Amino acid sequence: MPVTHWSDCMPFARLRITCRRATLATLASTVFGCWAAAEAIPPATAIEIWTAPAARKVFREDAPPGEAKTEVRLEAAGGETESAQVVLRTERAACVLTTATVSEFRDDQGNACPDISADLQRVDYVYLPELNRAWPDPLPPFRGPLPLLPTLAQPLWLSVRVPPTAPAGTYRATLRLSFDTQPDREVPVSLRVFGFRLPEHPALRTAIGISMDFVLRQHGVQPGTPQAAELERNYYQFFLERRLSPFNPPCDLLSPEAARWLDDRRLTSFVIPCSEDDAELQRLVEHLREHDWLKKGFFYVWDEPQTEADFEQLARRARRIRAIEPRAAIMVPFNGNPQQASGRSTYDRLDGLVDQWCPLSSVIDVDKQKARAARGEGSWWYVCCVPQQPRANVMVDWPGAAHRALFWQQKQRGIDGFLYWSATYWDPAYTRDPWTDIHTYTFKGDCYGDGSLVYPGDRVGIDGPVTSIRLELLRDGMDDFEYLTLFGKLRGQEAMQALTRRATTSLNDYTTDPLVLDGLRLEMAEALEQAAREQAAPDPAEQTRTRVIDTTDVLGLANDRVSVAFDRGTGELVSLKNLACDDEYLKQPGAAGNPFRVHVDPTEVPSALRLPFPWPIQPPDDALGGDIVDPRGCRL
Predict the structure, then answer these.
(1) Domain check: are 167 and 241 in the same one?
(2) 146 and 49 in a common domain
(3) Contact 405, 511 (CB under 8 A)
(4) Per residue in 47-63, pLDDT tens?
(5) Does residue 168 sit within a domain?
(6) Which residues form the domain of 254?
(7) What is the pTM of this model?
(8) What φ, ψ does residue 634 adopt, rounded to 5°?
(9) Model confidence over 146-183: pLDDT tens digits?
(10) Which member of 89, 159, 244, 557 has the greatest number of CB atoms within 10 A?
């Protein structure tokens, strides 16, 4: 059985060496011997550099492909993060990458664009014993120096963040690489920013677990300490920045701090704790309802019921919650469709008890999911240690494109929510250190990375998580879902479905070529960009554009529908009309802050409105209502 060791082969670097039947003494002599030899051998060949898509996993033994590209080309919408890999390889002589920096992005006129930012990580590897191979996954920050050993590929991971307000166009930067024994090298980086942006509030609902007990253990932090609270906030913020909603906000939901997390528009869900005390539960529910947070939360009353006793107990919990709050969302993820003694399926047994339907992806009944969605109930799915290959999942030894294809399959089936049971399941019964042993669970064999999407950052001096290739590709898949949603609104559901079928035709059949997914994504982007350009050139005969939105509170007045009129030429807000009582809010010319007052009541206190999205590019219809706020923070 091959073994994997970590060795500090240099004071500044940690290197993974895989060998067979090697003693520690032999291993040490091999590692240090190679460095001694490297110092004696003059540079024989230049360093090979090529680029690779983010969703193509690069192995240590890989050589440059026949038509290797040497320029990074990225494309992104506003508010999106895109990544690519720059792979380094030396054929005979070892050397050290001492520094790697990305210059400032500049537009075609040479103007600097400091809001477009770039990060560099190094691709690290984890050894999978059953496969006898090291797989790329951890992405610790590149801090250099980084040793390059002969014939071993070493990718760098370049991520570029595009702000929501970035103008469309092409931007350029340079990745500069410096080596100890080789001349400096430069890699051109081009970024095309599309003329539309992803909505701040995701169309895809997510729910992801963070096993904080294992996080604290790995970081060596005692529970209940200020350090533990800070670490929990760091992990929560990390996932929220990637538009993933952790189960549990890092605070008491009744505390003032809750607003910081629950008002964040990137947050799409959270788990409501179910107190055994009725009065306490009632108080929490009323508090959530008062702050308009109840619609984001759900009760997770049971996990994967199997027996009659399971169903009886979850039914009692669900009915108790319904008695306290009839509108509460209730979820029970289930991993099968067992026929119980009554002859009823899991779908039938849960009917009337839950309204958030979350089957395992491999047991989903699409017709039943659609029927429940049609009556206003939530449609989710999840993956874990199953499904196994060839079906899409997020474990280490899957093709990179499979992590993205999962979300194409989800959109194809009309599933609007994705749940993942844990991102930090580092149970010492399975792994003592995920950096060296990513066997996190056993199900019909070893599962590599099930329940573990990040790595504890303390190993590299970070009080938080270190991301992984899988998590970054999962984020890319979620962005694909947003593109598909926008494209479906623009061209219709049939066109959107036809496009998904070019990526996946069944749960077993999907493309593993990242270039296919990138090409389909580009088709959608160009269609969305063209639509944005057409909106930017309005017909002068239709200078004012009016939109009607749903709302529950406009400047303190209870009503349900509001008409908003924009000047299509200037983007100015012309009027805001309450359709329930026909009151109209009119702009006061020349006043600062765009103040409005009720037209029929001159004594009304003025309230300012702002539009945090660029006009004439329009947000999705379902996001417009939440994008207009008054100065008190009340969302319209």
Answers:
(1) no
(2) yes
(3) yes
(4) 999 999 999 999 999 99
(5) yes
(6) 205-468
(7) 0.81
(8) -75, 125
(9) 999 999 999 999 999 999 999 999 999 999 999 999 99
(10) 244
